Amino acid sequence: MLAAEPGVTRILTGGTDVMVQMRAGLAAPALVVDVKHLTGLRAITPEAGGYRIGAAVPGAVMGEHAGLRALWPGVVEGVELIGSTQVQGRATMAGNLCNGSPAADAVPGLVAADAVVRIMGVDGARDCPVIDIPAGPGRTTLAKGDIVTSIFLPARPARSGDAYLRFTPRSEMDIAVVSAAVSLTLGADGAVTAARVALGAVAPTVLLVDEAAQAIIGTRLDDAALAALAAACSAACRPIDDKRGTVAFRTQVAGVLARRAASIARDRAHSAGDAA
Amino acid sequence: MVAVVIWGSLRRFTDGKGRVEVEARTFKELLDRLSQDYPGLAPQITRGVSLAVDGLIYREAWFTAINPESEVVLMPYMTGG
Amino acid sequence: MPRDNNDTRVFKVVGTRPPRPDGIDKVTGRAMYGADVTAPGMLSAQILRSPHAHARIVAIDTAAAAALPGVKAIVTAADFMAQDDAGLDDILVNCMARDVVLYDGHAVAAVAATTPAIARAALKLIDVTYEALPHVTDVDAAMRPDAPVVQAGRANESVPAGMSPNVTHHCEFGHGDVDAGFAAADVIVERSFTTAATHQGYIEPHACLATFTGEDKADLWCCTQGQYNVRTVCAALMGMEASQLRVTASEIGGGFGGKTTVFIEPVALALSRKAGRPVKIVMSRDEVFRATGPTVSSSIDVRIGMTRDGRITAGEAVLRYSGGAFPCGTVDMGAQSAFAAYDMPAVRTLGWNALTNRPKEAAYRAPGAPMAIYAVESVVDELCQTLALDPLDVRLKNAARKGTLSSYGPTFDDIGLVATLEAAKAHPHYHAPLGPGQGRGLSAGFWFNFGGNTCVSLNINTDGTVGVTEGNPDIGGSRAAISQMAAEELGLPYEKIRTIVADTASLGHNDVTDGSRVTFAVGLATIKAAQDAVAKMCARAAAIWGIDPDAVEWVDGAAQPCGPNAGKFPPMSLAEIAAVSFQTGGPIAGHHEFNADGAGVSFGVHLVDVEVDRETGATKVLRYTVFQDAGKAVHPSYVEGQMQGGAVQGIGWALNEEYIYGEDGRLQNPGFLDYRIPVASDLPNIDTVILEIPNPGHPYGVRGVGETPIVPPLAALSNAVSRAIGLRLNRLPMSPPRILAALSGS
Amino acid sequence: MKTIQVSTTINGDATEFLCGPDESLLDVLRNRLGLTGVKEGCGTGDCGACSVTLDGRLVCSCLVLGAEAEGAQIGTVEGLAQGDRLHPLQQSFIDHAALQCGICTPGILVAAKALLDRNPDPTDTELRYWLAGNLCRCTGYDKIIHAVQAAARTMRETADAQG
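Structure tokens for the assembled complex are given below, as produced in the milestone run.
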């Protein structure tokens, strides 16, 4: 149906972006497909030690899922930062990804988690890493007729943790001026054995900063390692000046947030280890 | 005679004087005499002025009595929020 | 007017906290606001707005829109008559651009159609040919002689020759020998400041419903702070007689000064006249930001001299304001109020207004004062730091008080500044310890307060209840306060009074709800109307008793003979007199109409603690206390509410709120997402301390309280942030990127 | 454009309406069903004045399509009071002067009720973050926070007395 429609199409899950675009005249879709009642799209399902999250699961439901929170707290806190309580009742992680905003709160956490998107296309289902979905502001690599049906968050080793931080001028009701997500795993000796660091709102798409990960792998996140992490993040930034922030601000604060997120992720990894 | 304090930017129209004397017993008489004696003040008076008499601000009241010993200060007409 | 012995008067109702009369309607969703009414056959209208900051309108082709099924009327500037009065013509041109669009969002045409969707579709079919003109949105840039000219020939006689044509107005205030004052100073600090334009941010967008009956008679329902002003302006613009235009004020969803003028009402009237059907216009939030009336933006220089022991010797300020694309006199009030809190031997303030390609300024809470006082209070604070003096002691040492020659001319009568400063000094907040990265700031604030034209009717019902009819939309609980004053004066319980806001056909003129005037002026008129009714009731009792009316007095809600010589009769209550009113001469009512003066100025002092994250530039407000002189707080809860609400608006102005224009002169943040008014989680509780220094101009001592609270937060926050980070920011808002940039540059 | 027929339940009452496929639930409630207690402050989900509950979840009705109400349970401010008996939150807002102009009040009441239904004893911080999506420009939020906490106390006491 979507593929057959010659005009603009929009897929509605929570509607918190699509409705605003329609009202502002930014989008005048010929076809809006509400998919939230399709079977499976509203479920959080355990799978291979991880969780498969249906595309129509709103943020508030993710926040209320104890198992998901325990496994991927950073991903959940990113999703929970999308909008107000009211928006949380509607907005979905998949919608946040497909909207294509470089500042999307859910996306850095998903990239740091190496999450995988399941797409139903004209030729059937396929899987794709989250990092490959965004193509630029308001654009994705999804083809017409593609529908994201779920996002898979994998199982993780013991002593793993993740965290997401964003900067906004207000405490709530804001778009990230800059954001950072860190996912890491500690060895038994407390040193970082694996890490992924992602930055939001500092480039046309979310950035996965390998240099930042390398800066902390093998360390115990001492001050020097954290400083190196921050420096690597700042170095990777390619932001713009706009009404929400400046190049200098985004570049500097990206490093600060990554450093703080890494510390939180480490603390979570320690307690995850204790629990296990 | 009443001594009227004129605000700074109006002094261009009162020969540089910050205080002018006019014969007036009320707000209205004072405005009429000022416009007559100092025609350069007329546009501002038409736009609107307030008058502080002994510290109380009157925005329009023509018949406000003015005593010779009163402190009389001309002010712009004010609008608020 | 002499006040009662209100130092000793014991109030029964005034000063209590009864439930507001409109409370139930507002918590159940029944209250009717601007957008909540419909009419049979009603059309919906939409307004086409300029995408350009400045452009000539070469042509407007509405043929395709007019041909769209469902479109019933289209208006452009050609449908309105130019006005002889320049002020009225500016209002008209602001509602509908004539020949030239002057700012992004300026209206160029409007369509009324059977549904909003059809009206929106019709807008897309209107073909406007623009010829872009150079634009300017910054006040300092606009004042340069070679600046793009927004409008030529708009300067008044106050402007000296040789200025940029954008300069429309100039003023100067002050007294004393400023040069000698600076020569006597041990330290002189001179700084330059800028403040962004901000918006009142009321949550209810402007809305109205206009219904023409025939060519010359109409009804208008709208959310406004002043239905009489709407009538005066709209009748003139429509070429109608005032009596034929009845304006009813809806419940109003916030105004703060922004609803003291008209934007959509004349457009709705014109469309309704043309279509012969009721027409409703509801602005979108985008339209509210782009095309209603934000504050002035400002650029200010302040210079203050002080002796080593903290005595101010002289002060000087130059204020450059822009009220947008039309002449604006708001700088007058900034220049008058800048130094109002100080007793100064020498002071001079110069004000300039310049045109820019921005929307026409409207009033916003103490218009003109917050930015001027921000600049002065920042320099005073820096002097205190430089001289290692306590900022409250310095303000007390230099505080204006009774007998002080004010910076704007008159000598102050009883004012509450010293008491307010002393209350702040004695408060635990001022002495609480601060943690690392934290700073405490304070600022004084001032507003004039107005009285104004007021008309009140008070009707004694035969069952002993009372109706008060007043003409000022209630934006903060004023109906409760007015009912309280009527109850107090009549000696009745509060519950026996019902106060309503009348339409323009039902009561004489009332000035708009502005200048913190309502509780003062309408309250005063209500007291006078009650006294009028009391005199009539005493006369009825006297007639019943067969004694002289002068021998009757009103005590505790009843007429009684005054003294044993007057005769011996049991008191007659209001209800008893009312019950026989038809037999004793007919209905009983009290009235009062006047132009109230004697409003009494108001001072406040705010204390704030903040914590600044030095790595991100984020400021968190930790603790906030407002001290303000209310004269007499009629309903203390709503006095506190004014103080808290004003403080939080000021916090927003200081930290995040601003109109952001792009290089193209278009507004970049016309929505609540990027125009960041404070949200609940940004704030601590806002503590309040009400002082009651009676206003000599009111029988209960009431002063207006609504506007002063927005004045101090700007400098209080700036001083707190400056002390927290050890650096001064001289630009508002102090958004995180600016704070971080300042820290990085140090 | 073709209209859609929708069957839904609003404040407990079965309701049917027709709406356009692009029409928001907010417009349906206000313009088609006369529930003007639901207010529009922005139309973009940034102010919370149009807050309603949709199957128990707090949402901005401006961000919901009317058609999505099919088979759902909608709750608005008009459904808070039981006859002429105000909900404790409504009474508390009057008693604590928690409204000035009142335009944000319906949305805040619906939002606060949604919180207290889940968490009868929130901290001030939890309450302030929960209500961050409801803008109020008059009060500075202080009296709103106090009023909700007072109502929460009343509701807990009532629940204890009944329990």
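The mean pLDDT of chain B is 91. The longest helix of chain B spans residues 27-37. Further analysis is deferred to the final report.
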